[in-house]
């Protein structure tokens, strides 16, 4: 896997693959603990180590353990890597439609002893490892990627759904469960974060009282609905400043802030730097990206270089 990822991810940062659902991650140096934002996904690290922090809990994902996020989630992450042993990993977005189809085919999940969790690291077994290896081999060839790739992705998702923490993903898809209702509310926030969203409306849509919604929301995300919405807006604004070159004022307006001064205060409190300083740091990082990546990377150079921030933000 390390040898294949070394070929598929020759440049630091994120590298697009032949499949939209899969991206490769490479870091040649350690990245300190920083706020990040992940959509529902599976992260498989083949070399190096990442550690995620959610509330009072921490999660290690490395060559022995993979990470699963069953709902969109802001948390904090740090990376252990070096030039001698760079972080090499792949990130697979969870296709919720495929996950729902597989969950339906699997039938009702067995009653869980513990409540489902939004984020977990789970031991990698040989069966899942074999599927990941076959995916990497297929992604070396564009034709094999298109013919075989999504079938292998479906198999990987099946292995996760039937694994130790698969119940969390299945619970997030179950509309009648409290966890599933919160999962739906999180997707609603991500779809409409720039608009007028308030807790009573979200609670009503989830079929809960405001108090019950608050309690269940915090159990899933380790934060309040307002703080979750705020962190989502700040992450999206940072990405806009890097991807589209927006000013802090324009980015704040785009993500739903009415006051640019309030945005600047909250941004600095959250990221530890002002929007201008953060944008400057990210531009410096981007300017250090290789100017002539391999051809299969060059085809995605615009999005790939802009998404280099996501190695520090994801």
From TrEMBL:
| Domain of life where this protein originates | Bacteria
SMART domains from the entry? HTH_ARAC
Q: Which SUPFAM superfamilies match?
A: Homeodomain-like
The name this protein carries in UniProt is AraC family transcriptional regulator
Segments forming domain HTH araC/xylS-type: 183-281
Q: Does the keyword Nucleotide-binding apply?
A: no
* InterPro entries to which the protein is assigned, alphabetical: Homeodomain-like_sf (IPR009057), HTH_AraC (IPR018060), Tscrpt_reg_HTH_AraC_N (IPR009594)
Alphabetized, the UniProt keywords read:
Transcription, Transcription regulation
Asked if Hydrolase is a keyword of the record, the answer is no
> Its Gene Ontology molecular function terms?
DNA-binding transcription factor activity; sequence-specific DNA binding
